[in-house]
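Re: the request from the purification team.
They wanted to know what the chain is likely to look like in 3D before they choose a buffer screen. I agreed to run a prediction and write the result into the notebook, where they can find it.
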Amino acid sequence: MFRYCLVLTAVLRGTQGVDRRDLVRREIGSAAAISPISSLGKSQISNRPLPPGRSHSCEDFVSHVECKGTRGYDQSCIFHCAYLTPDVEGRWVVTLLMENSSNSTEVDISDWDMPAIRVEFPLTVQVKRFGSKETLQDFARQWTISHHRGLSVLFRALWQDRWAHALFDGLYPAYVSLARFGLAKHAFTPVAILSNYTRGLDCRLSESQFMGLSGAGIYTGIACQMEEALRLFGAGQETSTAPLLRINELREDLQGSSMLFDHLVSGSAHLGEYASLLALPGTQTSVDQRLFEESEAVPNQDLLGDFADRLYAAHGLRGPARSPAPSARQLKVLITSNKRMSPEEVAEMTQLAETASAGASASAGLDVRFIDWSTIQPFKAQLELLRETDILVSGIGTALFYSAFLPFGSVCINTGWKDEASVPTYGEDILGLSNRRTRFLYVPLEKLRRGITAKDVELEIHRAAALISEGKVVPFSPDENLSIFGRIIRELSLQSERSRRGLQGKGQEDGGFLCHQRPTGQTSLADLVFERNLDAKNLLFQLDPMTLADACQLDIPLLRELKRKYNLTKALGLHGSHGSCECVACEACGFS
């Protein structure tokens, strides 16, 4: 367990009469080794010995590096004796001090999920070489103003006031990097590059976490909840003393000097939600490895489940256990509100929940609630509700990511969405293939195209309840958690190397950035199948109209062949002249 002398961010922000530079100079801990988390239970603690080189404490100041993944694509590295400092252009630089005679691995990492997105003050890595160890050590002693003991993880969390981005494009990729080195069950200090949404606030305080929308359009309370989640996740337990190092706030104090880290893990590119192909990286071992977003498989484990369990423990909650026999209790059903719902739809779902809880559904053992996540705060309260949920009914977008925290043996019903162009989608149905604990059901595509009713949702709830009562939820084959769009894109990726590389961002100079500008979500598979134009409204540059098929380098003839194979027009309930459409079913032909 770590002992920390410095730096709760609130101390750095609010201390009066204390030289900030003196605070930065203090040693941050006394445990030199990488420590496993004790709060997760003995069965979850990694007791195997650390590989050579990871247990020393940088007393000689000489750097070492070990990397996994593909350089320039999804590389993650663990740096031993790493020096972090801002350069004159404002970029964050991890500097390695080595002797001229030593070999070093070529490093090209990104601190965020989608490297092509231009970020302020990006991360870079450089090597400084010295003719002798003595010269190196003299330089290090002059240059270093603080020594951070133990394990630290450097990552960027963009848009941290949107919780799904903060967790699944910021924290989760960092967690995958840890898992690559066998360190997913170890405590660490988060070294986070964050926006200044919470400057001047102590995010440990409830009043900070309950703040609303700022004048600048920032959900300040959510940003604080996520900042606190990052801090607690690193510790692996609920505590007020574990630090979160917000390095952007230390920029001025570090000019011309550096922080020394015993063990620093970094590298998040293509390891989060934004860049996913068919599933979150690190979650699939039972499917063809060609479908992995990551270039090097993570050790076989339920990584998303472990991530959820650690997040529960970080908030002082026991993770959801296997559900008891359904006959012994009432099944808890949550129908969730969504910003895409009309007032009429909200009223209809509210009425459904009230009627179901009072009528036949209640007698069938169902406790049904309609909830708006924005009214359930803070994030810990949401986890408390999710850990007891058997059936989650959710539309697309942020709300669907709550499915990652459901108990073993639960069911998530994806109700999809039909956008302004009347194009039906299941949004982020990559979450289904990522989840080994929860069975995913999809409202039939024809009903989604027509417009879902309360009766449709009620039928799916009873279908889910039957699966649970019959013990048919888990185990399940990966195919069962894929929508029809997922099955088409999976087969396209297996049969066409060009399509697979394009979807992974390996065939484009932008690393797949434009491929993920999809109208109904960065990882929407329906938008690919329907050959939609990419969504350019949020781009900071001019772009001629382009289809996602071109941006993702898809094999269009094969895609259309697969649409026929999977009877997509029948699933949509399309008849008549639509069968003569060259694209089989696409936005250009319409869906009427």
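For the purification team: The longest strand covers residues 144-157.
Please add any questions underneath this entry.
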